[in-house]
Structures are given as C-alpha cells and as structure tokens.
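Readers of this paper often ask what the protein records in our data store actually look like. This encoding replaces a full spatial description with a residue-level series of whole-number codes. For reference, a complete record is included directly beneath this paragraph.
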Amino acid sequence: MASVCCLGEILLDCIADQAGLPLDRVESWTSYPGGAPANVACALVKLGTPAGFIGCVGQDDAGSLLVQLLDSIGVDTTAVQRHATAPTRSVMVVRSQSGDRQFAAFRDNIDTSTFADAQLNATAIPLDWLTTADYLVTGTLGLAEPNSAAAIIHAVEAMQQANRRIFVDVNWRPVFWKDDSFAPTLIVDLIDRADYLKLTDEEADWLLQTQDLQVIADRFPNLQAILMTAGEKGCTYWIRGHAGQVPAFAIEVMDTTGAGDSFTAGFLHQLCQLGDAVLDNAEIAHQMVVYASAVGALTTTRAGAIAAQPTAAEVDAFLHLTERMNGHGTGD
C-alpha cells in the first residue's frame, strides 16, 4: 500500500543543452521524465517510502515510456489514466549559466489545455485505493484546467473525509495557465484545505504578499507546517509554532530541475518514518527540514528531475559528511 499518493502532471522536461540562451536560440534539447507530483512519487520510493501516482498520459510512446518508468522505480500506477487522443505533455525548459531553469513553452506550441494531464477524470480515481494512503500530495498546475481541477478537489475531499493529510506545493508555472488572473483565488482555496504547504519565497510574495511564515500560518490555521525554499539562500520553515532556517548546502549545481520536488519528498519521507507527532519537537522538526534540504540539494548535482534523485543511503552519507564539515543546507 502507498503511504503517499501524488496527484497531478507527469510529462517530459525538454531541457536546453545550451545554458544561458533564450528559447529561440537553443540549438538542441534533451528530454527527461518529470512533472512535480510524479517527481515526488519517484523520490519517495527511492528513499524507501511507498508511493502511488494519480495522473493521465496519452496513448502515445511518451505516455508508455513514463508509465514504464514509474513501474520500474516501484511507484504504484494503479490510478494512472490513459487518454485515447490527447498527447502526453512536453515542456521546453531553458537554463541559466548557474543552472536555474525556466519553463518557457510547450513542444510544437501545443495549446496547454489539449494535453492528457489536463483531461484527468475525477470519477475514474479509485477512492478506495487512494484513501488507504496517509498523505495526498498535489500541486496547483491542475487547477488551470476544469477537468484536472475537478479531479484535485475530488481527491482532496475524499482524503479529508477519511481523515488523511493534504500536502500542497504551490509550484507556480504561468505557462500552464491561459488566463492566470483567477489562479490566486483557486490556489488560496486549495491551501485552505491543506495540512502542509510548500512554496518558494517568490511564490509567497506573488500569492500571499508576504514571506512572514507566522502571518501565513495565522491566515491558514489548519496548516501544520509551512516550508519556504529560496534556492541558494536556503529554506525557512514554520512547523507547529516552531520557526527556523536552514542555510543552503555548498555544492556544485548542475541542474535545479526537480530539486523542490525532492525537498518535498524528503520531508514527507521523514513524516512517514517518524509520524506527525514529532512535529511538536522543535529539534526533530528542524532535522526533518535539514534532511529534506539534503535530498533537494543532491538532486541539483545531476541532470534531470527523476534521474538525479538520491537514495536514502546517498542522503545519509551526504549528511554524515556534511556534519563532519559542520555544514547544513537546502535545494530550491
């Protein structure tokens, strides 16, 4: 049984081979499996926590490749849907010289609403299977389309009725929205249903007009934890009234794609290992964020989101080495 179910997009990240160039000047691309919820599911399994994925791909080669990858890693694909006509999504990702990435466009300029992940069918989600999990992880990209938005709310309501926990990662990507003027309202409504929230410092400014985590906690009283990542500046957190900061690990960054998703998986892995009750302990809560940060940081040292994810043994070795060098840190 999956301890965590991840709902949302699975896709191909087409990452620019040439760093520092705008979209129209990139000469070649390399495709890597991605999509934030799928990334989280894969990272969890690699760390040793059972995870399932809920999403929709096309009846095409890309869709088959992605499902086969999930299966090979050990992600439960019971709830993966295949759409007869809609294609699996591919996103063009440009990179800065420092490795930071930007989601620039969709392959062949396909309309965002026509991709398979936008067609996720709420009524086809196996709720008996879903509600055996302790946690549901979802982002906000699915809110951009009516079918996938309905699926997110359907799954969230089912988990709430079963007294399970909801983890929301804002994961703001304007390219997914035809009209992003209504995005803040939809995203805030989803956060109102959440128990755990992850966002970046830029997302906090854009969506909530503050980086003060106590202010955010007061606005959303159901939240048990707020995790705000900021790339090389590290991570700040608020966990059941305990506030703190974890500075960035000093590492050589190759590609930041999927680092935030690995961070999410690292935190959830610790939750599943230790249980929610440990969040009342300020020192344990801090160490959980350090662990999550290490998972995110290690993911930046290799290319691709899923391919770069570390195992639990790699994370433990990295933290042991870091402790010897008296360092701490995070990934974005």
